[in-house]
Amino acid sequence: MQGLLDREVLFFGGKGGVGKTTCAAAMALAASRAGRKVLLVSTDPAHSTSDIFERPIGADPTELLPNLWGLEIDAATESARYVREVKDRVRDLFGHAILKEAYKQIDLAASMPGAEEVALFDRMGGLIRGEDARFNLVIFDTAPTGHTLRLVKMPELMDAWIRALTRSRRAMLGVEGDDKNDPILVSLKDRFDRLQGLRARLMSGRTSAFVLVLIPERLPIEETARALTQLDETGVKVGGLVVNRVLPRETADAFLAARRAQEQIYLDEIAARFADRPRVYLPQFRRDVYGLASLGPVADALAAATGVSS
Ligand SMILES: Nc1ncnc2c1ncn2[C@@H]1O[C@H](COP(=O)(O)OP(=O)(O)OP(=O)(O)O)[C@@H](O)[C@H]1O
Ligand SMILES: [Mg+2]
Q: What pTM was estimated for this model as a whole?
C-alpha cells in the first residue's frame, strides 16, 4: 500500500466494528508525524474519534496535536446550517411577498428523507474540494459501508437533479443555455460547477483513495467484496485493504493455536479473493486501542506498511 499518503483525501470504510476509526486515527497520526497537515473527519453518527484522542472534538476543526486536527460532522447540525444558508440566499433572491411561502417550502424540503444526507455531503464536499487551506490531507472515518457508499454515489444523484432543475428553470424562462441575469440559473450553474470539481477529485486516484478495513472473518470478507464491486462501479479508486486484528503466528497456547488455524483459512481466502489489491496486515493488540499511547504502535505499523517516514 505504498504511496497512500501521496493522496489528499482518504476514506476509511468497512463493516461495523472492524477498526475503521482506529485505522483512520492511526493513519492521521502517522501522516501528521510525517509533516502532513491532517484533518481527521468523523462522519459516523456514533462518533468515536474524541474517545481515541481522549478529548472533545467539535463541529469545527479542533487542534489535537501538532499538524493534526479533528472534526466530527453531525448530519442534523449540518442540515440546520444548510437550511439557514439556503434561506439567506433565498432572501436575497426574492421579495418579501413570497418569502414566507419560500421558507415554508425550504422547511418542507429539509424534512424530506435524505435531506440530512445531502447536507452532510455538502459539508464533506467542501472538505474534499480542499476549501480549508489549513490542511493538505483530509482523512474520513466513515460509518459502516452502506451509508458511505451512498455518499460516494451522491455526486451522480445530485448531478441528475441539478440538470433537471436547470432544464425546468430554462423552460420556465423560455431561454436556452446560460442566462447570467437569472439568479437561480446562476446559482444552479455554480452548484453544478462545484459538483463537477468535487467529482473530479473524488474519482481521481491521484487525489482520493478509499481504504477498506476488514478482519479475517467470514462476514467482513463478504462485505469487502461487495464494497469493492460498488466502489469500482462508482469510479472511486481503492487504495488498498487493511486486514486488522491478525493473531500472532507463534503460540504455545492450544486454544490460541486453534483460533489461529481457523483464522488462516480466512487469511488465505483474503489473499486469493483480493489478490490484485494492495493489502496491509495489522496485528491483534493485547488491549483496545484507546489514547495516544496505544494509538502510537498502530500508527507505526501503518506507517511502515504504507512507506511513510517521519
Ligand atoms: N488491532 C487491534 N487490536 C486490538 N484492538 C483493536 C484493534 N483494532 C481495533 N481494536 C478495538 O476494536 C474496537 C472497534 O474498533 P473501531 O472503533 O476502530 O472500529 P470501527 O470499525 O470504527 O467501529 P464502528 O463501525 O462502530 O465505527 C475498539 O475498541 C478498538 O480499540
Ligand atoms: Mg468507528
A: 0.91
Output 87 or 36, whichever has higher pLDDT.
Answer: 36
Considering the domain 4-76+116-306 in this protein, what is its CATH number? 3.40.50.300
Ligand 2 (ion): residues with CB under 5 Å are: 20-21, 48
C-alpha cell at 302: 501503518
Closest ligand 1 atom, residue 48 Cα: 17
Atom of ligand 1 nearest to the CA of 298: 1
Nearest atom (ligand 1) to Cα of 294:
31
pLDDT of residue 310: 57
| Residues 33-57, mean pLDDT to the nearest whole number | 90
Task: Give the ligand whose atoms come closest to the C-alpha of residue 17.
Answer: 1
